[in-house]
Design a protein that fits this description.
The protein is an alpha+beta fold. Helix content is about 30%, strand content about 25%.
Length: about 240
C-alpha cells in the first residue's frame, strides 16, 4: 500500500509492505497529521499554538499534546544553553521543530498499534521505518540531485536539518542570528521525535552541535560542514556514501 498527501506544508508518503493493510489504520495516520496541522501550526491564526502565543489561552487550558511538545522544547533549550529556542524575541511562538517529528512518530505508533510491522513513513524527508531493511537517502546539501549518504535501517528514524531548502531559517537562540556553522546534519535515533529535535538543536549550535548530537543517547550523526568536510559517528548506519 502506498499513499501520499500534502500535510503541514510538505508531502507525507506512507508505504506499507504488510500483507493485510487496514484502510482504517492508514486513514487514521493522515487524519492525525491533519489534526496536528490545524491545532499546532503557528501559521494558522486560530490554532492552539497561535492562540497560546498571543496570550489568549492560559497554560492550564492547553491540550495534553501541546503541553508535551512545549516540555520537549524547554528540555532542549536547556540542553543547548539556549541555542534551540522556540520563543525567540520579536517572533511568534513556533514549536514546529518539535511538532513535526513528534507528530509523525505518533502516526507511526498508530500503525504499530494497528498491528502493522513493515512500513516507511516519510514526512518531507524525515523518515521513520519499521521492519526493514530499508534504504534511506540523505540529500547532498550542495547538489540537489545527488545523495551524500545512503542509510540502511531496520527500525528507527532519521532526520536532517540543513540550509539548502529554506535558506538560513534555523536561528541560534543565543545570538538571535541564523546558524551557519553547518551545511547539513543528519541524525539517526530510535524515534523521529528524538531524531528531528536533536538535528535541529544541533544545527542551531553550529559546528559544536556535531559533538553535542553524538553525545545524545541512541543518536548517530552525519554532518557536512561548509567546504565539504564530513563528520560521522562510528555507528552511523551507512549503506553507501558519496563525497560531500
Amino acid at each position: 500500500m502506498r499513499r501520499v498527501e500534502h500535510v503541514m506544508g510538505f508531502p507525507v508518503s506512507l508505504r506499507v509492505d504488510d500483507t493485510v493493510v487496514p484502510d482504517a489504520a492508514v486513514d487514521a495516520v493522515f487524519a492525525w497529521l491533519h489534526e496536528v496541522d490545524a491545532r499546532f501550526s503557528p501559521f494558522r491564526a486560530d490554532s492552539e499554538v497561535s492562540r497560546y502565543g498571543r496570550g489568549e489561552l492560559s497554560a492550564d487550558g492547553l491540550s495534553a499534546g501541546l503541553v508535551e511538545v512545549l516540555g520537549i522544547c524547554d528540555r532542549y533549550r536547556t540542553a543547548t544553553g539556549g541555542a534551540f529556542d522556540v520563543r525567540l524575541p520579536g517572533r511568534a511562538l513556533d514549536p514546529c521543530a518539535v511538532v513535526k517529528g513528534w507528530s509523525v512518530q505518533r502516526a507511526a505508533d498508530l500503525l504499530t498499534g494497528a498491528g502493522l510491522r513493515r512500513f516507511c513513513l516519510n514526512a518531507g524527508g524525515d523518515v521513520v521505518v519499521s521492519g526493514g531493511p530499508w534504504r534511506v537517502g540523505v540529500r547532498h546539501p550542495g547538489i540537489a540531485d545527488r545523495l551524500c549518504a545512503v542509510l540502511a535501517l531496520t527500525d528507527g528514524a532519521v532526520a536532517t536539518s540543513g540550509r539548502y531548502e529554506r535558506g538560513d531559517h534555523i536561528v541560534d537562540g543565543r545570538t538571535g542570528r541564523p546558524a551557519t556553522g553547518l551545511d547539513s546534519l543528519t541524525v539517526v535515533a530510535p524515534t523521529l521525535t528524538e531524531a528531528d529535535t536533536v538535528a535541529t538543536a544541533a544545527f542551531a549550535l553550529g559546528a559544536e552541535g556535531v559533538e553535542w548530537a553524538a553525545a545524545q543517547d541512541g543518536c548517530e550523526v552525519f554532518a557536512v560542514l561548509p567546504g565539504g568536510r564530513v563528520l560521522r559517528t562510528d555507528g552511523f548506519p551507512t549503506a553507501g556514501a558519496a563525497a560531500a
